[in-house]
Amino acid sequence: MTTTNFSAPDIECGGCAASIQKALGKIEGIASVDVDTEKKTVAVSHDDVLVSPEAIATRLDHIGFPATVLSS
Q1: Is the pLDDT score of 72 beyond 70?
Q2: 34-65: per-residue pLDDT in tens?
Q3: What is the maximal distance between C-alpha atoms in the chain?
Q4: Burial class (CB in 10 A: 0-12, 13-18, 19+), 56
């Protein structure tokens, strides 16, 4: 498993966090999603063979939270 951290400046509340966790949790290869509403970051533990950081960022953008990769 790899953990990739994303910056998602549009995260504002717990509802945002729940939406992100729900959307990303449905993707095969993602083991866990941790959203920090204060720092406006998302840490995703994933199998990088099944899902790439770029695919995760695309999904975040698709649900209304444009994101950039901070580290992986």
Answers
A1: no
A2: 999 999 999 999 999 999 999 999 999 999 99
A3: 31
A4: buried
CA gap 67, 56 in Å, rounded:
9
Amino acid at 30: I
Residues forming a β-bridge with 46: 2, 30
> What φ, ψ does residue 16 adopt, rounded to 5°?
-60, -45
Q: Are 51 and 27 in contact (CB under 8 A)?
A: yes
- How is residue 43 written in tokens? 């840490």
Cβ pair 41, 8 in contact under 8 A: yes
First CA to last CA distance, the chain: 11
SS3 31: strand
